[in-house]
């Protein structure tokens, strides 16, 4: 059976979630294809050369996307449609295919799209929504598409916040723990050259304000240790994130295939999420990368992170660089504690957040959906 995963934009980081779902579906022996509009010059850089068919149209904005929609719908072959995010370009396309062919439609929600705008004053949200009416990711479209969520035949979500809000089955950002395996990471390029002998603190992910990178940079500054280097994976030199100190290295988007080797170089991983509407609903997928690679993780008490890292990580209050600094110092000074946390994290990831652990839940959901009259 073939399943089509619909992405709102194959050129952006939403493809990370698409790729995870595709990996689990293939683990269950489904054929998989990906479809969606393309805003850039190709598939999102970390997944360039992906070994999954991608059907796309160079029409990510309106009204060009509306004109391209019929052709995109005709190209979709899936017997089940799986739309990622309740946005017009993915869920809207899925609804169009469902009406045209009568195939089952699953909706996946991994972010609270409206939550990204709730830090703005209402009048600013309205103005921003109007100014971006040509973009299917506009706040106004996000609000509109929420009204159509009941039309999906099944729903999956990435966090307990989203489950409380929308219902559905929780499908974590699972990882292939055979691929993310510290025993297989034989090449560790970051441990050469200027970083040889350094203590490496690592952050991975898209550098957005709610990720708390300012707090992490301040914590590194408070430690005032020339032997410590903060490596930020996903932030290029020309990004909005500035490099305030010499002991902070910004690396751009990296291929998924390189992530295990990069993580192997880290002494610990820090995920300092801010307590904001969007981050309360979001689980940073990179926590599972770090856990799978047996890395000790320090994270903030936001969303499901305290539960995920219970017994295998350290949780600090959000927005507290001093608390971050203290716990970073603790783990760097206590290698036995850091190692024990890392090993416990990998065991928990294998047991609860691996492809093997999660794919059966997804398979059962699809099988039960297909049994419905």
Tell me about the largest β-sheet. Answer: 7 strands, parallel
Instruction: Count the E strands.
Output: 13
User: What are the secondary-structure elements, in order, as H or E?
Assistant: EHEEHEHEHHEHEEHEEHEHHEHEHHH
- Top CATH class of the largest domain: Alpha Beta
Under the CATH scheme, which architecture of the largest domain would be assigned?
3-Layer(aba) Sandwich
**Strand coverage percent:** 15-25%
| Overall 3D shape | globular
Order of adjacent strands in the largest pleated sheet: 3-2-1-4-5-6-7
Rg (CA only): 21 Å
Rounded mean pLDDT is 92
| First-to-last CA distance | 18 Å
Structural class call reads alpha/beta
The name of the CATH superfamily of the largest domain reads Glycogen Phosphorylase B
Helix residue percentage: 25-40%
Assign the CATH topology of the largest domain.
Rossmann fold
How many helices? The count is 14
Give the count of structural domains.
Answer: 2
Question: Which stretches are low in confidence, meaning pLDDT under 50 for 5 or more residues running?
Answer: none
Fold and architecture overview:
- This protein has about 375 residues and is α/β, with parallel strands linked by helices.
- The protein has two domains: about 1-175 and about 355-370, Rossmann fold, CATH 3.40.50; about 180-350, Rossmann fold (3-Layer(aba) Sandwich), CATH 3.40.50.
- Helices cover about 40% and strands about 15% of the residues.
- It contains 14 helices and 13 strands.
- The chain has helices at about 15-25, 65-75, 90-100, 120-130, 140-145, 160-165, 215-225, 260-265, 275-280, 285-290, 305-310, 320-335, 335-350, 355-370, and strands at about 1-5, 30-35, 55, 80-85, 105-110, 155, 170, 200-205, 230-235, 250, 270, 295-300, 315.
- The strands form two sheets. Strands 3-2-1-4-5-6-7 form a seven-stranded parallel β-sheet, sandwiched between helices. It has a six-stranded parallel β-sheet with strand order 10-9-8-11-12-13, sandwiched between helices.
- The longest helix is centred in the C-terminal third of the chain and has 18 residues, at about 335-350.
């Amino acid at each position: 059976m073939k399943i089509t995963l619909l992405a709102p934009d194959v050129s952006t980081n939403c493809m990370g979630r698409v790729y995870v779902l595709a990996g689990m579906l293939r683990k269950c022996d489904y054929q998989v294809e990906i479809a969606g509009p393309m805003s850039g010059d190709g598939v999102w850089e970390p997944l360039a050369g992906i070994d999954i068919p991608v059907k796309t149209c160079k029409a990510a904005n309106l009204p060009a996307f509306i004109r391209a929609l019929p052709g995109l719908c005709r190209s979709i072959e899936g017997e089940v449609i799986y739309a990622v995010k309740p946005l017009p370009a993915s869920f809207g396309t899925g609804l169009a295919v469902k009406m045209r062919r009568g195939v089952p439609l699953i909706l996946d929600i991994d972010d609270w799209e409206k939550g990204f705008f709730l830090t703005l004053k209402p009048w600013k949200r309205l103005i921003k929504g109007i100014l971006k009416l040509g973009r299917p990711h506009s706040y106004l479209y996000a609000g509109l598409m929420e009204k159509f969520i009941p039309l999906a035949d099944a729903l999956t979500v990435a966090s307990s916040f989203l489950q409380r809000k929308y219902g559905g089955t929780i499908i974590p950002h699972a990882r292939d723990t055979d691929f993310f395996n510290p025993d297989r990471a034989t090449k560790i390029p970051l441990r050469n050259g200027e970083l040889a002998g350094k203590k490496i603190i690592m952050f991975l992910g898209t550098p957005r304000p709610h990720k708390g990178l300012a707090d992490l940079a301040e914590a590194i500054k408070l430690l005032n240790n020339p032997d410590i280097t903060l490596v930020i994976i996903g932030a290029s030199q020309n990004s909005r994130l500035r490099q305030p100190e010499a002991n902070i290295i910004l690396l751009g988007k990296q291929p998924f295939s390189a992530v295990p080797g990069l993580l192997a170089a880290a002494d610990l991983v820090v995920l300092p999420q801010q307590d904001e509407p969007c981050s309360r609903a979001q689980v940073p997928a990179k926590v599972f990368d770090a856990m799978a690679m047996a890395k000790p993780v320090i994270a903030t008490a936001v969303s499901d992170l305290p539960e995920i890292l219970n017994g295998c990580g350290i949780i600090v209050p959000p927005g507290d660089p001093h608390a971050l600094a203290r716990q970073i110092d603790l783990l760097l000074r206590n290698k036995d504690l850091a190692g024990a946390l890392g090993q416990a994290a990998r065991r928990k990831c294998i047991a609860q957040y691996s492809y093997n652990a999660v794919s059966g839940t997804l398979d059962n959901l699809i099988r039960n959906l297909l049994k419905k009259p």
